[in-house]
Amino acid sequence: MALTREQMAQRVARELKDGYYVNLGIGIPTLVANYVPSDIDVMLQSENGLLGMGEFPTEAQLDADMINAGKQTVTARTGASIFNSAESFAMIRGGHVDLTVLGAFEVDVEGNIASWMIPGKLVKGMGGAMDLVAGADNIIVTMTHASKDGESKLLSKCSLPLTGAGCIRKVLTDLAYLEIENGAFILRETAPGVSVEEIVAKTAGKLIVADDVKEMTF
Amino acid sequence: MAGLDKRVATYEQALEGLTDNMTVLAGGFGLCGIPENLIGEIKRRGVKGLTVVSNNCGVDGFGLGVLLEDHQIRKMVASYVGENAEFERQLLSGELEVELTPQGTLAEKMRAGGAGIPAFFTATGYGTPVAEGKEVREFNGRKYILEEAITGDFAIVKGWKADHYGNVVYRNTAQNFNPLAATAGKITVVEVEEIVEPGVLLPSEIHTPGIYVDRVIVGTFEKRIEKRTLKA
Questions:
Q1: CA A3/CA A163 separation, integer angstroms
Q2: Residue B232 to residue B230: CA distance in whole angstroms
Q3: Which of residues 74-93 of A touch B (CB under 8 A)?
Q4: Closest CA–CA distance from residue A57 to any residue of chain B (Å)
Q5: pLDDT digit string, tens, across residues B1-53
Q6: Domain extent for A192
Q7: Which one of A31, A206, B108, B133 is separated from B214 by 20 to 30 angstroms, measured CA to CA?
Q8: What residues of A are in contact with residue B91 (Cβ under 8 Å)?
Q9: Closest Cα to residue B83, out of B59, B53, B52?
Q10: Is the residue at A196 inside a domain?
Q11: For A72, which DSSP code?
């Protein structure tokens, strides 16, 4: 079975380490916050200028001046700090964020990522995504492995305009966890009940199956 | 208005000198921390051909979105413009020019503009459409693109509290691009919720020192919430 959005978030959460500063993108990455292990402390960075994003507010806490990068109302946790956008991106560009999780339309074997623009359709803009992928060393891309029509999103070469070049090394899809090394996807883990053959069939770019490929458990 | 007292009494005075084809830098992120009343005054004045630099362009009928209604904006420099149907229509019809700029690059362009730095190298956007036509240089084995600073004829800024010297503090994440825009305007206008007596704001807690600020006005704000999200 392909992973649910929640299972994808759970799997990403296993990459969190005590003391990490983490930036979570919109969509599935946001859900990762729900699965932070209770025995570790991580600080969530929201690029509109909040380090230490807390839970969504109660009605009484609701504050128009307190939002996250997805423009949702949020709270600040104990130990949080708030700053301007240049300071926020100094953290990101300066490599101070330990883990960045974001979605994508396509990735390829060279570590390129396309996530912001589909020519001919509405172009909404890249927001902070280009800064995040250029500034972070440790990035996990979360995405579906193939489109609804079965077209692979793990390619030899991205077909859409890039968000960043050569910056992605870890990809979690609904079918698999893969790493990108030396011009190939390395299959490290399969979703429970998903065969290696299915993943091979749905990966357009060069794929190497690791000798010790594991099945994820939840 | 004398010396270091930056207060003005009316919004008309606040934007005196704003004319067609000027560049306006605006603070705000989404609808959070936007200079609502200064935007309203731009609309009232009817100036056209503006270049507006802001992370977003409001929504239909609120924020910078209201300036699209009468085609006052010629060019928009922003990182994300996804919430606005009229914006999309004008973009696709060619009535509106748009320069999409990565959010961190946009912030740094304003910061550099205000700090007298004409351009800077960044890895952001290298290898993407953003890099087209820009100088590339390698430092320590990595490629960077040259991005130029931005300054504006006017900066419109939303603060929380200010004193008459133009010292400003912002509230929570309504800070965002506001302090950056404030540094990079030839004329910087700050509207605030409250003007306090000098000495009330602690010198060590000022976000925008008054040297950057030309005019301060007190206003009332709707503070519309774009995505009201409550704890489940």
A1: 25
A2: 6
A3: 74, 76, 82-86, 88-89, 92-93
A4: 5
A5: 468 999 999 999 999 999 999 999 999 999 999 999 999 999 999 999 999 99
A6: 5-211
A7: B108
A8: 123
A9: B59
A10: yes
A11: B
A65–B32: do the CB atoms touch at under 8 Å?
Answer: yes
| Domain presence at residue A77 | yes
Residues of A with a catalytic annotation lie at: 47
Q: How far apart are CA A176 and CA A205, in angstroms?
A: 14
Residue in this structure with the two tokens 């859409």, named with its chain if needed: A160
Task: Report if residue A206 sits inside a domain.
Answer: yes
CATH number of residue A102's parent domain: 3.40.1080.10
Per-residue pLDDT tens over the stretch A6-65:
999 999 999 999 999 999 998 899 999 999 999 999 999 999 999 999 999 999 999 999
Q: What is the pLDDT of residue A121?
A: 78
A74: number of Cβ within 10 Å: 26
User: Which residue in A166, A46, A70, A163 sits closest to A116, CA to CA?
Assistant: A163
pTM of the shown model: 0.97
Residue A74 lies in a domain: yes
Q: How many domains does chain A have?
A: 1
ipTM above 0.95, yes or no: yes
Considering only CB atoms, A124 lies closest to which of B81, B105, B229, namely B81
Residue B88 sits at the chain A interface (C-beta within 8 Å): yes
